[in-house]
Amino acid sequence: MNFIRKFYYGDIPEDKAGGNIVSSSSKTDWPLWEVFIRSKQGLDHKHAGSLHAADAQMAIENARDVYTRRMEGVSIWVVESKYIHASSPDEAASLYEPANDKVYRHPTFYDLPDEVNHM
Amino acid sequence: MPVQDFEQLFQDKIDNEVKIEPKDWMPEAYRKTNIRQISQHAHSEIVGMLPEGNWISRAPSLKRKAILLAKVQDEAGHGLYLYSAAETLGMSREEMINDLHSGKAKYSSIFNYPTLTWADIGAIGWLVDGAAIMNQVMLTRTSYGPYARAMVRICKEESFHQRQGFEILLVLSRGTAAQKIMCQDAINRWWWPALMMFGPKDSESTNSDQSMKWKIKRKTNDELRQNFVDMIAEQIKTLGMKLPDDQLKWNAERKHYDFGEINWDEFWQVVKGNGPCNKQRLEARRKAWENGEWVREAAAAYAQKRADRQKDKAA
Q: What pLDDT was estimated at residue B311?
């Protein structure tokens, strides 16, 4: 197969690159946090992105600097990414299957005469 | 399922404009290309703080200083959005930073040019951020979900960058004779490197166009570059300045501006590390990383101590 050899904007291939200095590895790897922001009172917290921080307090402060520089939020939740459990996309078909054949859960399933309003 | 079926399903999703998300199956080359491209993009934002940071302490007024600080802080934020988008593909932050510091990973070559005068800050905002926006607007529709979302956030913030740059030049262009000369000089020096930001000509690449097929990219280098030239050639009229290209001319037939040949030797020289500031930029990044080591350690130690204290309390 012919893989990506096109040199796009912002995609300079490694073999065209110079340099071979190896930098030292650090011992302190701060954990990853997921950030959720409530943009205004009355709305849900919504996933905004992630960041690294040593602890929860720092994660909130970093989230303020990274995700709310223009008053995008009134409340921040942070949770360490390792505590997020997610459904698997591979099992999506079977996971959502129970809802698949229940069209009667939608209001449009019911045919009503035109003269019935406000329903 | 055999791999071909997975690939076919994947391609069907792309063709139907369904975004790819981190845990979805993807071809290894798609993952790799995205990691390379997103991390290079992140590095560009981070290294991009350096040429502008050079003028924070020398900005001509408190207002300009506050604006420049905010802009540089935005660049840091953009770098962080992008690093976390790249991390969703399975490369750690530390690996990415190590690759930047070792010279293995690239960043946009434009940041290897020096900022000699205050007008350069204007030219960077207008031309360099202007070129970046062309690319980034396209990337808001890229096929990898986290990258596209980061781009939406970034594009919202970028337009302030370009407008403040243009305004700096506008003020200079209406200033004293010396200010006008400074304005023109900055445009002269930044114009060609800004055009190079779009990468080699389309005709230079002989191989298959996988990034387009995967909708990582949606426009070619030449298309983006042409859009940029058309935009700038009009905007510069307001400044009453000239672009340093004798061959720049409206082509009524093509409905685009024609423009002169880019110096590709210079382009590859700078990519390979021989630009005016390559060494300086990488050294600044490495130094910042090394000098920050004690802060990272102290924060980790403090977090540990706080966690221990909480455990004691619970016991």
A: 87
Instruction: Specify whether domain A31-85 bears CATH 3.10.20.520.
Output: yes
Tokens of A19: 């340099």
Using an 8 Å Cβ cutoff, are B120 and B185 in contact?
no
Residues B37, A70: C-beta atoms closer than 8 Å: no
Q: Per residue in A42-77, pLDDT tens?
A: 999 999 999 999 999 999 999 999 999 999 999 999
A93 Cβ contact list (under 8 Å, min separation 6): none
Residues 6+ apart with CB under 8 A from A38: A44, A45, A46, A73, A74, A75, A76, A77
Q: What residues are paired with B87 via a beta bridge?
A: none
Verify whether the Cβ–Cβ distance A21 to B103 is below 8 Å: yes
* For chain A, domain boundaries: 1-26, 31-85
Amino acid found at B74: D
CB-based contact (8 Å) between A46 and chain B? no
pTM: 0.89
**Contacts of residue A59, Cβ cutoff 8 Å, sequence gap at least 6:** A33, A35, A51, A53, A78
